[in-house]
Amino acid sequence: MESHNITLIPGDGIGPELTDATRRVLEATGVKFNWDVVHAGTDVMAEYGTPLPQHVLESIRKNKVALKGPITTPVGSGFRSVNVALRKELELYCCLRPCKSYVGTPTLYNNVDLIVVRENMEDLYAGIEFEKDSASASKLISFLEGLGAKIRPDSGISIKPLSEFGCHRIVRFAFEYARTNKRRKVTAVHKANIMKYSDGLFLAVARDVALSYPEIEFEDRIVDNMTMQLVKKPQQFDVLICPNLYGDIISDLCAGLVGGLGIAPGANLGDGIALFEPTHGSAPKYKGMNKANPMAMMLSGVLMLRHINEISAADKVEKAIAAVIADGKNVTYDLKPESTHGNAVGTSQVADAIIDMMAKMP
Ligand code: NAD
Question: Which ligand 1 atom sits closest to the C-alpha of 82?
């Protein structure tokens, strides 16, 4: 049996515990892995002088597939986000976040099965910002005044670039995903009525790309209306394609619809490179407490198994996770109704229960 070379980044905070639990579950499928365990984040700063050492990037470029735990971005320390840096360095332009409801999760909604496709490189996340009262902000304000745009002098400015290339690449990805995975509909999320030349371009590109996929229904929604409709009736949607900022917000909203961050997996995809990680962060307050839900990271592992074509192993892990959630005994606090938090089990017990469940499956 082929052994898969995978870069494994445990992360920090709750990351190492979740990684350990996930690794045990993935290995219990019988699939063979050569894990290349490498570390990034504040903990390696002293040794390498950077939170994202070059050998971490090299490992991912070589193996082409990585599984990653969350990494803390300390506020106000000047420390660059390793998560954003990884996406930029490896040109992981697509963030794929499936949000699926499993029977037994404490949520108001049933039968939700959404795929959020978020653009990962452009938009207000491009990091093009000008601080209030800085020389560059003043220069930009004067320059824009020359073009007839009036901005108060005491403004901080963030720039929102959306390129035709970037829009085309992400929209094409969403439609290709829909076609391959037999999805029925793609909904483009935007605010093109107000931002006519950025979101307007995104929408125009989406409409144009949709013409090449006549078998897939296409529609668009203005982002504010979209949030309301998602909360009212999420089942009417299927694949959502969003520019970066709306994708960030919508994917957390969708995670909330299906029971929270503890079961929200994610993938960051580029041409030929894929990095799988949960949507949630490092939840430092739960570090080392064997308390956090490992399922989001395990479901990210399921996406990884599908990516490396280990389909039956992927199905098995997902079915076992669904069965453990439905059973309701061996789940962490976030999947228990508030009154029964005391009966919750820990991270490693969830892994044990999933492994036991897989052993009972045909
Ligand atoms: P967070 O997602 O870490 O935690 C928010 C809250 O959600 C937690 O307090 C906890 O109540 C709950 N939660 C999160 N994951 C859970 C899990 N697996 N099981 C049960 N409950 C869970 O968000 P935050 O507190 O805003 O961020 C903490 C740190 O993580 C920050 O430094 C942030 O920059 C970083 N972060 C990293 C990533 C990443 O690595 N991709 C993503 C988001 C945030």
Answer: 40
